[in-house]
Model the fold of this input.
Amino acid sequence: QAVECAGLALVGMLFPEFKEAAAWRETGFRWLSDHMARDVYDDGTHWEVTPGYHGWVAERFTVAWRLAQLNGVDTPEGFTAKLHGMYRFDLRVVTPTGHGPMNGDCGRYSLRSRMAVGALLFDDPELRFAAAGDALPLNAFWLFGEDAFARYEAMPAREPAFAAVITPDSGYAIMRTGWDSDAAYFFFDLVPYGGGHSHPDQLSFELQKGGAILLGDSGRANYNHPLHGGYFRTPEAHNVCSVDGRFAAPDVSPERLEWTEREDWLTARGRVPITLESGDEVTWERGILWIRPDTWVIRDLFRGGGVHTVERWFNHAPPYPGNVPEEDARQKLGIPMDPGECIAVVDGERRLEPGWFGISASTRYDTESTVVTSRVEFPATLRCVVRARAGGAAPAARDVSPTSLEIALPDSGGAWRWSWPDGAGTSRVERRAHTE
Done:
């Protein structure tokens, strides 16, 4: 409805000679304001929590707001601040290549042109920095006039003060090593269910380095294509876990348990229930320990009773054009040629399954997924270590207790012990002397 409301407000401003123009304008903005209040979280995220549709709605709000600004029309209280927040959402989640995460019905879409528009709209130097030099779209003339590009070029740019961040309401947990194009980037999906554009991707993750997606969300296809519902909207197209072949229900929102950041490490945890064929319910809790700069420990904890088969899915992104396919570029950046090399340590038996990687509605590539199978008695803890680099001595991970594990990193000459509470709370992470 935001599109229709924006249209009504626009017609009311563009054609003031009509006797009902004022009523159209006022009604359009009243409904737009209702949608802004109801559909956009306080952290600036659109409720459908899909970056592509978030931007599409933000653009509709923007056109109406900008025309009102140019014509001296007052907009509802709070509208401007929330619209700025929608552009700041793009800044929080943007990857080193300027794209957004691929969760939900979203391919690999650039956020830079949107952030460039937001930079000019709100005179925001951090948006200007992340948008980069030539990102202002041609249609900026309609919003800003003929001097738009000169004003954009003259704008100051400031590197954002944050690197890792979680959106408070929408649960996009972003871990990045910096803002340069060679940075490593990790997205942990603590995002709530957002309706029809959501995928069954709770607690999934994406790993990128130097412009290359290594382990990621599989993306999307055209809504009319058989693969859209037959593959891209299935749990297996995401980096998630199953128990006895059952996944979390697609409309279940993850419970957020932790986001703790320190100088050398960061922890994030969430959990979801999984209902088995018998009707019994087990709990899957995924914890992420980021050991800066390029190592992520993924701890999957399953609670319940009995012996079960757990499968963990790791979806590889193929080296398609635009995903740093050149061997010399990957070697220069220390990026694995085979995304499977990123999975440095994992419990269980591995196999490869065919899959697809959809960067847009019409463009997709064949790829593979690593599936790891474990037969374990619950409660059980399964471990994985992923790295955004190739080579080096392999890390190791072992359980110390039901609520702690130890990770040995030979390349750094030491080990880390990670202890977590039962449920919500703050983890304890200690760097220790190297262990055998």
